[in-house]
Write a structure and sequence with these properties.
This protein has one domain: Rossmann fold. Helices cover 56% and strands 15% of the residues. Strands 3-2-1-4-5-6 form a six-stranded mixed beta sheet, with helices on both faces. Helix 3 packs antiparallel against helix 4. The protein starts with 13 loop residues before the first helix and ends with a helix.
């Protein structure tokens, strides 16, 4: 593949992307019924400092895309340092989340993915959550513990979309297991593929807010990978 190819295969195998899109498609009916709450979690430990500013811009575009669809509330949470974990209120406007995100700087510390999953469980017990989106690059926790929390989240009907920055094999195994147990999806990206991550995040937000029809409308103006995703989802629906 040449360096100018911007297809999704630059960040994951075709099987990974197909699995991601299939999971996204399967969640459509439920998302349209429970639209309104998407939990967005970030690893803000020191290892992500080099790509944090770029990731912030990409993730900000996801918030804006979701706001354009309407009907979607987002909560931003992140961990960093040693035991620091923060979560915003549930908001339907992008501005408060953008202010929070741009004020965050990464701090060295250990991962707290289990805490993210437990937070998602607690939120889902209080009021239904349509999806969890997580962006991180490593995992320093016991995978069996994450699997236990993911299983609980799965029983609550909350799919976890796990976006993996880089190629750490242990993180890959952990993220894939969380995605599997929650009927979510796993997708890898790296610093050379910000456009692909942007399109995938926006697609999840738009799809969670309004289902397939909203994604198709968004794709008509957005083009690029969003259009490709919408086309593949439409093909799957028509093929059933």
């Amino acid at each position: 593949m040449n360096g100018n190819d911007k297809s999704l295969t630059t960040i994951a195998s075709s099987a990974d992307v197909d699995a991601f899109l299939e999971r996204l498609d399967r969640r459509g009916a439920r998302a349209s019924e429970t639209r309104g709450r998407l939990l967005f979690a970030l690893d803000a430990t020191g290892s992500r400092q080099a790509t944090w500013d770029r990731a912030t811009r990409i993730q900000a575009e996801m918030f804006i895309a979701a706001q354009a669809v309407g009907g979607l509330k987002i909560q931003l949470c992140f961990y960093r340092g040693y035991g620091e974990f923060k979560a915003s209120p549930w908001v339907s406007q992008a501005a408060p989340l953008l202010r929070m995100m741009t004020s965050v700087s990464c701090r060295a510390g250990e991962t707290q993915i289990a805490r993210v999953l437990q937070h998602a469980i607690n939120e889902a017990l209080a009021q239904r959550v349509g999806a969890l989106v997580f962006v991180g690059d490593c995992c320093e926790e016991v995978i069996d513990l994450l699997a236990s929390r993911a299983g609980q989240l799965g029983t609550l009907g909350v799919p976890a979309f796990m976006f993996h920055e880089g190629d750490d094999p242990r993180a890959a195994r952990a993220f894939q297991e969380v995605a599997r147990l929650t009927s979510g999806a796993y997708c890898r990206f790296d610093s050379s593929s910000p456009d692909a991550l942007r399109q995938l995040l926006c697609a999840v937000a738009v799809y969670a807010a309004g289902g397939g029809p909203a994604l198709l409308r968004h794709a008509a103006s957005a083009g690029g990978e969003v259009k490709r995703i919408a086309h593949q989802i439409t093909q799957r629906r028509e093929g059933r």
